[in-house]
């Protein structure tokens, strides 16, 4: 498992944890098609994260 803010840093969408937090709080991030405002949301393999029109499959990024 990985937290949403950490995932955004890992895939390069947010260069810092602070920026990841702002993106999440501003409602710019969707998890499985639903806006997610909890930066500590735990992601598991199979979850899909969409930001700025890009969708990432969690299982493809973390092993």
UniProtKB/TrEMBL annotation:
For this chain, one GO molecular function annotation is:
RNA binding
Can you tell which superkingdom this protein's organism belongs to?
Bacteria
Q: What CDD domains does UniProt report for this protein, alphabetically?
A: S4
Alphabetical list of InterPro entries matching this protein: S4_RNA-bd, S4_RNA-bd_sf
Matching Pfam families: S4_2
UniProt KW keywords: RNA-binding
Q: Where is the RNA-binding S4 domain?
A: 2-63
Name of the protein:
RNA-binding protein
Q: Which organism is it from?
A: Nostoc minutum NIES-26
């Amino acid at each position: 498992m990985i937290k949403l803010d950490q995932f955004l840093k890992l895939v390069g969408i947010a260069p810092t944890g602070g920026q990841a937090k702002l993106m999440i709080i501003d409602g710019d991030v969707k998890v499985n098609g639903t806006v997610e405002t909890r930066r500590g949301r735990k992601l598991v393999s199979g979850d899909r994260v969409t930001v700025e029109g890009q969708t990432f499959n969690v299982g493809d990024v973390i092993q």
